[in-house]
UniProtKB/TrEMBL annotation:
Residues 30-67 form the ShKT domain. InterPro entries: ShKT_dom (IPR003582). It comes from Panagrellus redivivus. It comes from the Eukaryota. Keywords: Signal. This is ShKT domain-containing protein. The keyword Signal applies. Residues 1-19 form the signal peptide.
Amino acid sequence: MQFLRVVFVALAFVLAVFGATTTPTVQIGPCIDAAGTAICRNVAKDCDSIRFRKLLREQCQATCGYC
């Protein structure tokens, strides 16, 4: 599971470096874990982390309780 954490960190870094938008998104459709429930369960402890919040809000909505 350390691999998944590294992937999330790398993705968060790329988004930060290349100017990811900070505009809030409006959810349309069902509340799901886009990254998959198993992956999101493994990173659920980071749902409130400032470092991962944006990424997890997009990828792990259901597990992190964002919807």
